[in-house]
Amino acid sequence: MNQTLTIPATVKPATFSIAGADLAEAVKIVARVAKGTGAYQGIVALSFRDQRLTLSATDFETSIQTRIPVEGKKATAVAVYAAKLKPFVDALKAERVTLDITADELKLVGGNLEFALPLVPDAPAIQLSVHENPIPIDSAEFGRAVRIAGAAAATDQARVIITGIMFENGIAVATDSYRLAVVHDTIDFGEPLLIPAGPASIVADAFAGADMQFENIAGRLQFSNAWTTMTIRRIDGSFPEWERLVPGKADSSFTIDRKQFAARLRNVALAGGVAARMAVSGEALVVTMKEQDVASSKGGIPIDIDGVVPYVGLNPTMLRQLLTAVDSDKVTVEVIDHLKPFKITPTEGAGWTLIQMPVRL
Question: Could you tell me the sign of the dihedral formed by the alpha carbons of 179, 182, 187, 190, in that order?
Fold first, then answer.
């Protein structure tokens, strides 16, 4: 069946009270969907019924509906712009917030602050499908897979296929053509699914630490629990044959502290540019970059070396994004030569694999 939220042309005045923390958390998640700037985008609908507030938003590709308890018996519905609602709610920081609805505005009162938001006239109805046969999904594992694989997903909508994360046979993988991230032994949806990385991260945040269920409804991927329902459109198309991008076993490698490695890449990137030189010096890793006569620090990071590790050029910002997404204390970096992709894996276990293309120096 379908649930339709329709904003009436004539608003019923009413007053409600709600926990400030509940309202702030719900608005934070919903506002990430209500981010468009076109007609009827960027809108959050608020529906009050049976002592429950339902916040809904859509950007026509992704829809969300989340419910929280309120004090107040009247039934009414209004729509406001998310760009105003979120900063106002964030500013209140009150234990209880009063929502006072009049014919043309929504007042938010908390502590000694009061904000008034104009209502959006002629707001569109928002539909969310609700079905009876969802399958349970581990929200923590889904969030982990999205965080790691999503770090390598493209953001250029002109290449929509690689803006997604492919889930297939217990593997999650994403690539932007320069990087590849693979998560092993993760969520298996029972069918191959290419899920947009951006909306998937919203799902992960919305259901973090909570129960989550899933259903594929004719290409619309629905995630839900007792309080929140989120629907996103599946990406249709053929995902790249990513296995061909994974290099073979290298004869040389080194093991390094992941956090120190990521911190050094961050500092090196401050010099500007996109090409840094990573090389072994003695028993330390040195990453340097010189752009516009600004030279980065040449201090080394202690490493454990296996074989003769060749130098390689890399984009420090792109690699740091991958390293900050994973959760191992130490990582092993395998380098074949300076012209081939290099591979990063956890030193202990086999939960994920990262691949990055080199850059010419």
Answer: positive
Map out the domains of the chain as residue ranges: 2-129, 135-243, 246-356
Pairing of the two strands 304-306 and 253-257: antiparallel
Residues 6+ apart with CB under 8 A from 131: 1, 215, 217, 222
pLDDT at 295: 47
| Interior/surface letters 102-138, b for 16+ CB within 10 angstroms, e for the rest | eeeebebbbeeeebebebbeebbebebbeeeebeebe
- The vertex-222 CA angle with 220 and 224, nearest 5°, equals 170
E strand segments, 119-170 = 126-129, 135-137, 164-168
Neighbours of 350 (CB within 10 A): 9
Q: Which CATH superfamily is domain 246-356 in?
A: DNA Polymerase III, subunit A, domain 2 (3.10.150.10)
299-313: pLDDT as tens digits: 689 999 999 999 999
Q: Amino acid letter at 95?
A: E
pTM listed for this prediction:
0.89
Write the pLDDT tens digit of every residue in 250-277.
999 999 999 999 999 998 888 777 899 9
Q: What is the rounded distance in angstroms from the CA atom of residue 318 to the CA atom of residue 176?
A: 10
Packing angle of the helix pair 258-269, 316-325 (nearest 10 deg): 150
| Fold that domain 2-129 belongs to in CATH | DNA Polymerase III; Chain A, domain 2 (3.10.150)
Neighbours of 237 (CB within 10 A): 10
Q: Which of 252, 208, 245 is nearest to 230 (CA)?
A: 208
The strand pairing partners of 306, in sequence order, are 253
CATH architecture label of 135-243: Roll (3.10)
